[in-house]
């Protein structure tokens, strides 16, 4: 007899390639993953996974089952979204995924306003460095600072995020040839603000790298170097000073994204409008 849970565990193993990876994604132990996959193989009476020393790979039959199983999973998620959208009062839980610094420094301090407006609505805020999949229901709504690509989602631009150079008080008084810099790690050399910083540094040393903006800001406050930071995080920080340089600032568009099946749910719409209003009213004025 077919058990959807067996298929769900098989798909996680097919995606990650390891028992431990599948177990982490499903929040179960690896023995459960192995047992579920074995049960599916017994049901189909065929081998779906080839067990190699460091990785599990799909057999030819496993590849066919994975394709069909992913289609089943997509349809199951669509069914769940449709039912939720039809019977959703302005209550319950909405999951919102945003970049980590935006979650911690911009949105979380403003959430009391959402609580006052909708006391029966509960928000789960995910500060993700990776992009949460809306089609896989990792989140209901996402704030993105790169143009969304998902065909099944609806996106709208709700504002602009400015980045500028900040340093500890007095740091910029030293000769500019002696300035040193704080930046993302090399994996983010392609993003707008990092390219701007590298061009501005013009060969001067980047002495500290971190993929977390809070960590970069802490290093800048400590006098380690000049950091390229979002203005909403830094412009009112008494321990950081914006450099007075006549250059155009780096900017990134802010997008609000929702799966098309959920956009009319009252609770989801309430969070969408709240976030859009906060960005409109709360982002620092241009050049601040």
Query: Number of helical segments?
Result: 10
CATH architecture of the largest domain: 3-Layer(aba) Sandwich
* CATH homology superfamily name of the largest domain: Periplasmic binding protein-like II
Could you state the oligomeric state of the chains shown?
single chain
How many domains?
3
Distance between the termini: 64 Å
* Main sheet attributes: strand count, strand direction, barrel closure: 9 strands, mixed
Strand content: 15-25%
How many beta strands in the DSSP annotation?
11
CATH class wording of the largest domain: Alpha Beta
Might you state the CATH topology name of the largest domain?
Answer: D-Maltodextrin-Binding Protein, domain 2
Mean pLDDT: 88
What structural class do helix, strand and pairing data support? alpha/beta
Report the C-alpha radius of gyration, rounded.
23 Å
What's the SSE blueprint?
Elements: H1 4-16, H2 19-26, H3 30-44, E1 49-51, E2 56-58, H4 60-86, E3 92-98, H5 100-107, H6 111-117, E4 121-127, E5 141-144, E6 153-167, E7 181-183, H7 192-201, E8 206-209, H8 213-221, E9 226-230, H9 231-234, E10 241-242, E11 250-259, H10 266-282
Parallel strand pairs: 3-4, 3-5, 7-8, 7-9
Antiparallel strand pairs: 1-2, 5-11, 6-9, 6-10, 6-11
Helix pairs in contact: 1-2, 1-3, 1-4, 2-3
Quick recap:
Belongs to the LysR transcriptional regulatory family. The chain is α/β, with parallel strands linked by helices and 288 residues long.
């Amino acid at each position: 007899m077919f058990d959807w849970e067996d298929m769900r565990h098989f798909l996680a193993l097919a995606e990650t390639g390891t028992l431990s990876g599948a177990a982490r994604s499903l929040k179960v132990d690896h023995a459960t993953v192995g047992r579920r996959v074995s049960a599916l193989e017994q049901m189909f009476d065929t081998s779906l996974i080839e067990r190699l020393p460091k990785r599990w790979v799909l057999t030819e039959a496993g590849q066919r089952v994975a394709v069909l199983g992913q289609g089943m999973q997509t349809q199951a998620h669509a069914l769940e979204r449709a039912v939720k959208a039809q019977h959703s009062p302005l209550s319950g839980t909405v999951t919102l995924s945003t970049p980590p610094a935006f979650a911690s420094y911009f949105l979380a301090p403003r959430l009391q306003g959402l609580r006052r407006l909708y006391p029966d609505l509960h928000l789960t805020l995910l500060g993700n460095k990776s992009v949460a999949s809306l089609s896989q229901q990792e989140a209901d709504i996402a704030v993105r600072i790169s143009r969304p690509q998902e065909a099944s989602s609806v996106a709208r631009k709700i504002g602009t995020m400015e980045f500028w150079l900040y340093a500890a008080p007095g740091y910029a008084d030293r000769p500019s040839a002696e300035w040193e810099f704080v930046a993302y790690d090399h994996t983010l050399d392609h993003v707008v603000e990092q390219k701007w910083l590298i061009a501005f540094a013009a060969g001067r040393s980047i002495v500290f790298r971190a993929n977390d903006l809070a960590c970069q800001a802490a290093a800048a406050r400590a006098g380690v170097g000049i950091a390229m930071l979002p203005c909403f995080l830094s412009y009112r920080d008494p321990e950081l000073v914006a450099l007075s340089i006549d250059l155009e600032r780096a900017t990134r568009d802010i997008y609000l994204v929702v799966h098309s099946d959920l956009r009319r749910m009252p609770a989801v719409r309430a969070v969408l409008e709240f976030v859009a209003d906060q960005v409109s009213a709360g982002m620092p004025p241009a050049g601040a």
